[in-house]
Amino acid sequence: MAFYALWRIAYANWPGVPNVKISRVEVFLVGREWNNLVIARVHTDNGLSGLGEGTMQWQARTVAAAIEHMASRYVIGASPFEIERLVQAMYRNEYARGGPVLNSAIAAIEFALWDICGKALGQPAYNLLGGKVHDTIPAYANGWFNAETGSDDIGAAARKVAASGYRGLKFDPFWGQGRDPDLADLRRGIEEIATVRDAVGPDMKIMIDGHGRFSVGTASHLAHALADLGVYWFEEPVDPENFIALGEVSRPRGLRIAVGERCYSRYQVPQLLAQGRPHVLQPDPIQVGGLLESKKIAALADSHYLPVSFHCPFGPISTAAVLQLNATTTNIVAQESFSAFDVSWRSALIRNCPMPSNGSYVVSDQPGLGGIELDEDVVREHPYREQAIQSMWSANGSTSALRPFEPSAADAA
Ligand SMILES: [Mg+2]
Predict the structure, then answer these.
(1) 8 A C-beta contact, residue 170 and residue 132
(2) Distance CA 256, CA 235 (A)
(3) What is the DSSP-derived secondary structure letter of residue 172?
(4) How far is Cα 129 from Cα 127, in angstroms, rounded to an integer?
(5) Separation of 343 CA from ligand 1 center, angstroms?
(6) Average pLDDT across the chain, whole number
(7) Which of 171, 263, 317, 358 could form a disulfide with 53 if both were Cys (CB 3.0 to 4.6 A apart)?
(8) How does strand 36-44 pair with strand 49-53?
(9) What is the pLDDT of residue 397?
C-alpha cells in the first residue's frame, strides 16, 4: 500500500501525466490573400501548450467564435488526454450539429490536444495514434498554377513541378465555369490538360478538380475526355450533397473518381460509398473534426479497399497534423500539398514548418505535431482580411454574389 501511495504521488506530480488540466484557449486569425488561417493555441495548468488549426475556406470569424464557445463549454478544466470523450461531447451535445463550421472548431482544439499529449509524453503524435507505418509521405502539388495565366505557360509550370520531384499534380482547368459550360470552354480546358500531359510525360499522376461544378451530363462527357488523357482522378465532378447523382457520372475505364472533402462525418460515409461509388476518399481532417475522425473514415474506406488522400489546402499547422495522421494510416495514396506554392512567410509562421523535398514529406519524429511553435510576430504582420475570398463560379449555372474586390488597408499592405 505504501508503495502504491508513493507511486500515486509521484505519478500525479510528474510534469506530463494525465491529471493535467486545460486552462486556456487562444485563437489567432492570420490573413492571406485568398483566405484567413484560423489557429488555436491550447494551454494547460502545467505550462504546456499545443497548436491546432481550424481554417475553413471563408468562414474564419465564424469558426473562431465556435472555438471560443467550445472551449468554454467543454474543454477548459478537462484533461488534454480525454480526446475521444471531448470530441464526442463537442459533436453530439450541440444536438443540431454544425457541419464544417463546428467541426473545424472541434478540429482546431483536437489537433492542439494531440500536440499537447505528444509534448507531455515526449512522443510524436503518430506514436499515440497507432504507430508509424510510413517514414515518408508522397506529396502531389496543388496551387502550382494560376488559372489566369495562359496555356502556353502551364506547360512550363508543369515541367517545373515535375523537375521538383513531384509524381503528381492537380489543377482545375475549368475554374470560373458553371454547371454546363460552352463546348468551347470545355475544349480549352481539355487542351490545357493535354498540354500538361505533354509537358510531364506519361508517368505523372494528373488530378483534375471539378470543385463540384458540373451537371451529371457534362461531368460524364468530361470523364471520357479525361480518361483518354490518362488523368489519374477526376475530383468532385458534381456538387457534393447528392450521392446518387455522383453515382450516375460515367466511369470510363481507368479513371478514378475522388470525393470526400465535403463529406463531414463518418456517419455519411457508408451512403457515399454505396451510392456515389468513389475510388478515392478525401476527408478533410479539419472539416470532419480532427485526426481521430479522419482515421475512422480512412478505416471505412479501407473496408471497401479504397485509398484515402487527405484534403489539406490550408495552413502549416494542418499540414503538420495531417502528416502525423498519414504516418499511421495504411491506405494512403498521396498527400495534397500547397506548401511550396503558398505565401512566402508560410514557413516562418511556425517553427519546424513541414515542407516537401523531392516530392515527399519526411514525417517528423519530434514531440506532438512535429515540434511546432507559433511565431506571434508573423501573426501580427498578417492581420485578418475581410475580403480574403475567391469565387469559383460564373453566372452559368451558379451565380456569383460576391462584391467586387475592394482592398482593405491590410490587403493593400
Ligand atoms: Mg478539391
Answers:
(1) no
(2) 8
(3) -
(4) 6
(5) 20
(6) 91
(7) 317
(8) antiparallel
(9) 43
In angstroms, rounded to a whole number, what is the distance separating the alpha carbons of residues 340 and 318? 15
The structural domains of the chain, with segments of one domain joined by +, span: 131-370
Q: What is the dihedral of CA 115, 120, 125, 130, to 10 degrees?
A: -140
CA distance 107 to 269: 19
Grid look-up 502556353 returns 152
Count other Cβ atoms within 10 Å, centred on residue 1: 5
* Residue 59, all three cell numbers: 468562414
What lies within 8 Å, CB to CB, of 80 at 6+ separation is: 20, 22, 42, 44, 48, 50, 113, 116, 117, 120
Residues with CB in 5 Å of ion ligand 1? 209, 235
Specify the amino acid at residue 127. Answer: N
**Which stretch of DSSP H or E encloses residue 270?**
helix 269-271
Is the CB of residue 36 less than 8 Å from the CB of residue 388? Answer: yes
Q: Which residues contact 63 (CB under 8 A, 6 or more apart)?
A: 38, 54, 55, 56, 101, 104, 105, 108
Place of cell 488523357: 229
Ligand 1 centroid – CA 81 distance (Å): 32
- Supply the residues annotated as catalytic: 211, 311
CA of 209 relative to ligand 1 center, distance in Å: 5
Spacing, Cα 275 to ligand 1 middle (Å):
20
Task: Give pLDDT tens digits for 174-225.
Answer: 998 999 999 999 999 999 999 999 999 999 999 999 999 999 999 999 999 9
Q: How far apart are the first and last CA of the chain?
A: 66
Does residue 150 have a pLDDT over 80? Answer: no
Confidence label for 50 from pLDDT (cuts 50, 70 and 90) = very high
Q: Could you say which of 3.20.20.120, 3.40.50.300, 3.30.70.2750, 1.10.357.140 is the CATH number of the domain covering 131-370?
A: 3.20.20.120
pLDDT digit string (tens) for 363-397? Answer: 999 999 999 999 999 999 999 999 888 877 754 44
pLDDT in tens, 120-133: 999 999 999 999 99
